[in-house]
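Re: that chain you flagged

S.,

Sorry for the slow reply, it's been a week of failed gels. I finally had a moment to sit down with the sequence you sent. For the record, here it is as I used it:
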Amino acid sequence: MTINWEPGIGDPTAMGWVTVVAYFVTMGLCYRAAKTAKNQTGGLPAPANKEQYFWLAATMILAFLGVNKQLDLQSLFTELARELSRLQGWYADRRTYQALFIQFLGIAGLGLGTVLFFMLRKMANSLKVALLGFIFLGIFVLVRAASFHNVDEFLGEEFLGWRWNWILELTGIFTIAVTCIYYVQKRSIDK
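Prediction finished late last night. Pasting the structure tokens below so you have them in one place:
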């Protein structure tokens, strides 16, 4: 079994580090939103403060994604899947399996999004918008991990001097960050 992945800095470019900083700044904003949610209920235990748990989960997810941005764990996933497909003899049909994987991600993402929206229906609208940002970001990371050659080519192309990779990833992060700021401001006014 040959894996062509080593732990290290996965994206040492300036934009790679900007993206890492964006993840961690947004993580801090989510933590602030969690503290704001806790203060709104006087620190009541579950289930009285589901919003606090949402923002704490968001904090942890962003911490993982920020670390992952530089460790490039999705490349490890891709290498493991590639080696497994070779060992099991279906590497020649990998494009079919990649397409099925992407279709599965789309259906699973819609299903998970629907369930989460249902669970969050009585909570602040900003949580729903943040959830959209997370779904967008999650699908982006997983599609990137699937490593379609055409997808990789597209993500490397530029639009107004920005690579699509940066645009898509930062859009998800920015969506979450803006909703955190809005949530904290709205909750502070509502006090």
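What I noticed first: The beta strands are 158-159, 162-163.

Talk soon,
D.
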